[in-house]
Amino acid sequence: MMKIHPAQSANRMEEDRHGLLYRTMCLIRRFEETVLEEFRRGHFYGTTHTYLGQEADAVGVLYNLSPDDVIVSNHRCHGHFLAAGGDPRALFAELMGRATGVCGGRGGSQHLHWGNFYSNGILGGTVPLAVGMAMAEKIKITRSIVVAFLGDGTLGEGVVYESLNMASLWSAPILFVLENNRLAQTTPVEKHLAGDIVSRFKAFGIETQELDTSDVLLIQSAAAAAIDEIRDGIRPSALVLHTCRFGPHSKGDDPRPKEEIEHLWKTRDPLAVHSPRIPSEERQKIEMEVAACVREAYQMALNDPFPEFITTPQAQL
Amino acid sequence: MPTVLESLNAALDTALAVDERIVLLGEDILDPYGGAFKVTRGLSTKYPERVIATPVSEAGIVGVAAGMALRGLRPVVEIMFGDFVTLIADQLVNHISKFRFMYNDQVRVPLVIRTPMGGRRGYGPTHSQTLEKLYLGIPGLRVLAANSLDDPGRLLLSAILEDNDPILFIENKLLYQLPVNTGNEDGEFDIQFVSKGPAESRLTGVKSLIGNGYAQCLRIALRQAPQPQITIAAYGYMAELCRQAVHRIAYENELFAELVVPSQLSPFDVGPILDSLSRTHRLLIVEEGTYSMGWGAEIAAHAAQALGEKSIRVSRLAAKDLPIPASVPLETETLPGIAHIVQAALDLV
């Protein structure tokens, strides 16, 4: 299969940075659109949480990672996974419950593990996990860092604050990426969060940058600076990204007025913000290649076998 | 004989000495305090880099330890009081026990969480409970319970060094000061190992007590006693109280019992208990957790399914379905004691 998301590959230097960022954002966009379209046909099971509108966050941040760095993600993990270089066919297959899925169909949309990428659908609980991973890398002296994605809704979970405390106390090499898409499922941030987000990190002595943008270049450079600091200074840092979710929380649960969502598409589409930087011929080529790749990945997954039922760890214990 | 406390402390010391991936985390575990019950005493002095005092953040600590375990370390966490396992429920149920399965066997989580349960110290409703039943039957989580009739240090060492899956290791406050091999200094009891067979250890000099997926189980009877007439099943500190009851009913009532003491509660191998029951036809199950919906009920169900057509009698003894009061006479009445065990055994025959 065509390799179109080489965010961590060795030949990334050969590619134009703008084109690469655009290509990866396009991949996420096309993948998620396919998920929402095809859910209606019944090929996917369970639930999904699409990354539409937030593409620049994952793509900008993860562009800066080294191959040995660790990523901890949440329920809205497709974009993080694809930006990390995950295989779209394996992700499609996971959503379809196929044996070739990222986790053989056991995990589904929210529970992915591949290489150094881990996601779980329980909010908050992944944050101490990420701090522990960062401490492990520090203890092993690997110079690897951990990037932990969390959303504004997760700030309602108490264990987040236990984790920020320990990360700062023990100088864990971790970047907290807080994606504030201003909605906890359907509840607007004004109705679920008191105070402000940046102060939460600063209260624990964690260096924090704040961006309200859909521009992948701004996010990429801010993340690059933070990651350098974390790697060299061996201490935590936070990046608060005010972002916009274009799609529903899951599949059809979006009570926002249509006009509000249309306004977001017009003003905050990361692809539209970034695309003028790429010559139109190249842009079209990227878009066509991505569309073909996603289509091919989807078809391959659709033809993949279902897994065999095997004994559980309970039986193995 | 060392005490259970010394045995556990020595096991932690050995684990830290032989494997650099071992780290200890817990609240107040540093010297000179050495932990609320002193199980970690001396270890922070000997291994200052790998014995980590934590904030009062049980959920956070266990999450951190799980992250460490996923990235190549072998953490051991102390939860100061067993009652606090409620605070780590999300990590245990939705993270730690799930990772291996939901990540399609691509990861292991070698993590041991130790905690002392149990009452009889007057600590009241929130520091005296026996809560491990909350974590029995969780796929992907092994629950072990130490007792003083076996070697608790060896069990802990096996858990830390030999097992690559997460373990909740249940201790008991009143076990700590008992000598290992309690009450059998002169060999009055015959103690047999009826586990599915200890596995060969990867570690020289230490025989794993968790063989073939199950930790060791003991079968205990007075030496040269007649055929047992009753089976008593118990674990942890209750096993010691049952041992005393077995002694008493033999000498005072000429009732001979066989005591079956598992070290592993989940997943549970009911085989040794059913094996004994098929010979005695009488089973008393004793636990310190509350009576309803517990370990004893599960065993009774297995007994009914496996041996229901035989003429068997089953009885359960447990803490009353009440919070544990602080006042000594009230607490004594709430928890199963030796007199209760003796009476329940006599009632069965």
Would you mind describing this structure in some detail?
- The complex is a heterodimer of chains A (317) and B (349).
- Chain A is of the alpha/beta class and 317 residues long.
- Chain A has a single domain (10-304), classed as 3-Layer(aba) Sandwich (Rossmann fold).
- Chain A contains 13 helices and 9 strands.
- Chain A has a 7-stranded mixed β-sheet with strand order 2-3-1-4-5-9-8, with helices on both faces.
- In chain A, a hairpin with a 2-residue loop joins β2 (113-114) and β3 (117-119).
- In chain A, α1 (17-39) packs across α2 (55-62) and α4 (88-95) crosses α12 (280-303).
- The radius of gyration of chain A is 19 Å and the shape is globular.
- With 349 residues, chain B is an alpha/beta fold.
- Chain B has 2 domains: 4-172, 3-Layer(aba) Sandwich (Rossmann fold); 189-348, Rossmann fold.
- Chain B is 33% helix and 21% strand.
- Chain B contains 10 helices and 15 strands.
- Chain B has a 7-stranded mixed β-sheet, sandwiched between helices. A 6-stranded mixed β-sheet of chain B has the order 7-10-12-11-14-15, with helices on both faces. A two-stranded antiparallel ribbon of chain B has the order 8-9.
- Chain B is globular and about 55 Å long.
- The two termini of chain B are 36 Å apart.
- The A-B interface holds A 70, 103-104, 106-107, 111, 113, 118, 120, 122, 124-137, 139-140, 158-159, 162-163, 165-166, 169-170, 312-317 and B 23, 52, 54-55, 57, 59-73, 75, 90-91, 94-95, 98-107, 139-140, 142, 165, 213, 267.
